[in-house]
Specification:
The complex is a heterodimer of chains A (350) and B (526). By secondary structure, chain A is an alpha+beta fold. Chain A is built from eight helices and 21 strands. In chain A, the strands form four sheets. In chain A, strands 7-8-9-3-10-11 form a six-stranded mixed beta sheet, sandwiched between helices. In chain A, strands 2-1-4-5-6 form a five-stranded antiparallel beta sheet, with helices on one face. In chain A, β13 and β14 form a beta hairpin. Chain A starts with a strand and ends with a strand. Chain B is mostly helical. In chain B, α14 packs antiparallel against α20. In chain B, 52% of the residues are buried. The chains are: A alpha+beta (350), B mainly alpha (526). At the A-B interface, β7 of A face α19 and α20 of B.
Chain lengths: 350, 526
């Protein structure tokens, strides 16, 4: 059981640094997804952890051992990390069992271990196969077995599912998640796919411009992002101008909306962020004598996703927003609607 | 993937690469030393001598005539064989590439055996055109084949006739390939020794060899060699420049349709067939027929099989030693350039590519000077000869090594590290293990090419040591054409393998990325 600590790490390839003053702390046995767009430095972070790249500043520790820091540098082969590279990167000249046994010695126990991990990933029947004979998903399974065989303290996964088709990706990541939870291996997976990160990890670490912006459990990351850019990156967002209206609410074009957490210190001009599923559409005509809530607008487009639809609306006050409705939407283009917020919003000062 | 190697190269690797590059530079360095030590007065008098300028004029004119001749043959032939429906065009293209397998001195010998009166500038020009036009034809054909037909279609829809559209849109895209090919031909002509010597043309190589033989006035030989190297260096650098530009011309990826072929009329077909037949007759049929006739005549006398086998084995022994040295020198440089882009990699690579600008006759001359003056116990030894081969063909070996290593993803080696291997073990178990077949194939190519090397072998071989090339040479010199035939045939057989790989590489050159080695002139295909 090993925790991972990255303290004030700066690293790069000679030019401007890719990682600047980065901090990350992963508890023992945790599964962390590092989420970032391309160029955010997430792969560089993985390379620093694996020991392929030496940071110019800062320290990296696995458990009680510092593996990188001033005057300290443990080479990759001594770090007890396993790596599952993109598209597997199996050794093309070795068959499956030799690939998996590459990190083990030639003893009889090693043979058993190879069989054991191959069984774990469901590839025992392919022990003698060549990497070229395997499908993409099978190659990833073998790559995982190869990384797990020497019982690493830390497992690093570099966009392991990105090359697979959608159906397989979902199945395999659930399976891998289950396996890693059972083994209790500290795991760090790099991905640019927010859905993947949210669905698989204990915690998601969002990276931007070489720094860690936020690290939270998936639900709180999605519902309460640290800033607007993060909010946009982890899912569809509805952004509305807001002013503080006392108590725990703000005033927006959709009326008064409850907020999550505390009011920003600079409470002048604010932006309230909601998720499209926190909005509902109702008939614009007033029903009975009820006070008209929400905001009026007109439908200017619908994007159909199968399990749900996004209805794009322009409010009479001028703002554009999207509302998620389950299944197919019943509104038609140009129809006038009333949008009512249901959930608490996150607010940020401008 | 170049990013992944952003780490600084390990020191021992830099050291090994620098040592390799320095060894490859020895002949050039010693040539400069030799010239400088003659003193300014002697250099000046050598430079001002009429013969120096006559030689330069002869070599440069020969180069120009041959390049123009190659363009006149290659561009129409390439267009005919890639953009028209001429029946049998694939077969014709293969046949037209065959001269790559005929060393220039073998072609010259074959023509001389049939027409003993042939001599002089124009005879040499004819033979050199006949053996070197494929260096232009193959890349131009590849470029024409890979141009996007949509561009020509746009020109058609804008009102150009079919020929005008081809001439104004497609052909310009093949020009960088033609230019690069022309520079290779120029380099080939400058460093050619066999054809100019057999036809008694006083080009650099023949004059340098003669003044070395005459063994007086070696300063003038060294000065001439320096001018030759200077000209060759200009061509080598120009070729690199042009090659870079031709890569930029390539249009974006995406699915490419095949060009619609021009339908030839009956007259067009007959004309096309006539054209390629004449070229093939001059380049292939005459020399091969002459060779076979000589062989038939020569068989009246018993062929000394023992001598032939011995010459082959001697050739192979020296060439194999050279190939091993070349691979050893190429390994650190190839590794450095494939994995770490830095000033070290470009510097050592450029230095090692000096072999391109050093014709065999120059390397021979420089190593003769060096061994006589500095290390007499190495003078005319097998080791010195093998070293000359290694320097001469080092670029070939570096190309093969770099391409093979670059084809192995660095992540494999890194993964091996995380699985507990030390740096050297991880490298040997993944990168080297996977690149080895390509590196060894490069070595084999060096071996086969070195076996037909002539000028450096003539100057550096131990007394009594005969190779196929020198045996052919000495028999041709005394007009013993029949006795020379088996050696010529053996040399063509040897040259076939490197020629085949070269023509394959040239035909595919448009698909190569800038990482890969484009076909380079091997200075001793001649």
């Amino acid at each position: 059981m090993t925790n991972v600590r990255v303290d004030a790490v700066t690293a790069g390839y000679g030019g401007p640094p890719i990682l600047t003053d980065l901090n990350l702390s992963v508890d023992s046995g945790e599964f962390i997804a590092v989420l970032g767009s391309s160029g955010s430095g997430k792969t560089t972070l993985l390379r620093v952890l694996a020991g392929f790249l030496t940071p110019t500043h800062g320290t990296v520790s696995f458990g009680d051992h510092q593996v990188s820091g001033p005057g300290v540098w443990v080479p990759p082969e001594k770090r007890r990390v396993g790596i599952v590279p993109q598209e597997g990167a199996l050794f093309p000249h070795l068959d499956v069992q030799k690939n998996v046994g590459f990190g083990l010695d030639n003893s009889a126990q090693s043979k058993d271990r190879v069989r054991e991990v191959l069984t774990m990933v469901g590839m025992n029947d392919f022990a003698g196969a060549r990497p070229q004979e395997l499908s993409g998903g099978q190659q990833q399974r073998v790559a995982l077995a190869r990384a797990l065989a020497p019982r690493p303290d830390v497992l690093l996964l570099d966009e392991p599912f990105s090359a697979l088709d959608a159906g397989l990706r979902a199945t395999l990541r659930t399976e891998v998640r289950g396996l890693l939870t059972a083994l209790g291996t500290t795991s760090i997976m790099v991905t640019h796919d927010q859905e993947e990160a949210l669905s698989i990890a204990d915690k998601v670490a969002v990276m931007r411009n070489g720094q860690l912006v936020q690290m939270s459990e998936p639900a709180s990351l999605y519902q309460d992002p640290a800033d607007i850019e993060t909010a946009r990156f982890v899912g569809d967002s509805v952004e509305l101008p807001a002013t503080y209206s006392g108590g725990d609410s703000v005033h927006t074009p959709l009326g008064t909306v409850r907020i999550r957490g505390s009011i920003p210190v600079n409470a002048g001009s604010l932006t309230a962020v909601l998720r499209p599923e926190q909005l509902v559409l109702v008939d614009p005509r007033p029903v009975g004598g009820a006070v008209a809530q929400g905001g009026l607008g007109a439908v200017n487009g619908v994007t159909y996703h199968g399990h749900d639809s996004l209805v794009h609306i322009t409010l009479t006050s001028g703002e554009s927003l999207s509302v998620r409705v389950p299944g197919e939407s019943t509104v038609s283009l140009g129809e006038s609607v009333r949008v009512i917020p249901t959930g608490p919003a996150s607010v940020y000062s401008n | 993937m170049t990013r992944s190697s952003g780490i600084r190269p390990p020191r021992p690797l830099i050291a090994a690469a620098v040592v390799s590059a320095c060894l490859a530079l020895i002949p050039l360095f010693y040539l400069i030393v030799r010239v400088a030590s003659a003193g300014p007065e002697k250099i000046l008098s050598s430079l001002l001598r009429a013969r120096t300028w006559e030689t330069t004029a002869t070599s440069v004119s020969l180069m120009v005539v041959v390049v123009v001749g190659c363009l006149i043959i290659a561009i129409p032939a390439a267009a005919l064989l890639t953009r028209t429906n001429l029946p049998g065009r694939r077969l014709w293209l293969t046949a037209l590439a065959l001269p790559l397998a005929i060393p220039s001195y073998v072609a010259a010998y074959a023509w001389l055996a049939q027409f003993p009166a042939m001599s002089g500038f124009w005879a040499a020009a004819l033979i050199l055109i006949a053996v070197s036009y494929p260096y232009v034809l193959l890349p131009v054909a590849a470029a024409l084949r890979s141009t996007d037909p949509a561009i020509e279609e746009v020109a058609r829809s804008l009102g150009r006739s079919q020929f005008a559209a081809f001439r104004t849109t497609t052909l310009p895209q093949a020009m960088p390939a033609a230019a690069a090919g022309s520079l290779l031909v120029g380099l080939y002509v400058l460093s050619d020794f066999g054809a100019v010597s057999l036809f008694r043309v006083d080009a650099f190589t023949r004059v340098i060899f003669a003044s070395y033989r005459a063994s007086f006035d070696r300063t003038s030989a060294a000065v001439l060699a320096s001018i030759l190297v200077l000209l060759a260096l200009i061509l080598v650098f120009a070729e690199r420049k042009v090659r870079g530009r031709s890569l930029q011309y390539r249009s974006a990826s995406g699915t490419q349709r095949k060009a619609v072929l021009t339908r030839l009329s009956i007259r067009g077909r007959v004309f096309g067939w006539g054209f390629v037949t004449v070229v093939i007759a001059i380049a292939i049929i005459v020399p091969v027929a002459s060779l076979l006739i000589r062989l038939a005549e020569g068989s009246r006398r018993p062929l000394d099989v023992v001598e032939l086998v011995q010459a082959t084995l001697s050739s192979a022994g020296a060439a194999a030693t050279g190939a091993v040295i070349a691979v050893a020198l190429a390994l650190p440089i190839g590794l450095l350039t494939a994995r770490y882009r830095s000033k070290w990699s470009t510097g050592t690579e450029t230095a090692a590519f000096a072999g391109h600008a050093l014709p065999g006759v120059v390397i021979g001359l420089s190593l003769v000077f060096l061994t006589i003056n500095a290390v007499p116990f190495l003078y005319q030894t097998l080791f010195t000869l093998a070293f000359a081969y290694a320097v001469l063909f080092l670029p070939k070996s570096i190309g093969a090594t770099r391409t093979s290593i670059a084809a192995v993803p660095p992540i494999l080696e890194q993964t091996a590290r995380t699985l507990g291997r030390n740096p050297l073990g991880a490298w040997a178990n993944t990168t080297l293990r996977l690149a080895w077949p390509g590196i060894a194939a490069g070595g084999l190519l060096v071996l086969l090419t070195a076996m037909k090397e002539l000028p450096a072998t003539l100057m550096l071989r131990p007394t009594g040591f005969d190779t196929l090339a020198t045996e052919l040479w000495s028999r041709t010199e005394i007009a013993a054409y029949g006795a020379a035939a088996p050696y010529a045939l053996a040399l063509i057989a040897l040259a076939a393998v490197p020629a085949f790989t070269l023509s394959l590489a040239m035909s595919k050159s448009n698909k190569l990325s800038d990482q890969q080695e484009l076909p380079q002139l091997d200075t001793v295909s001649q």
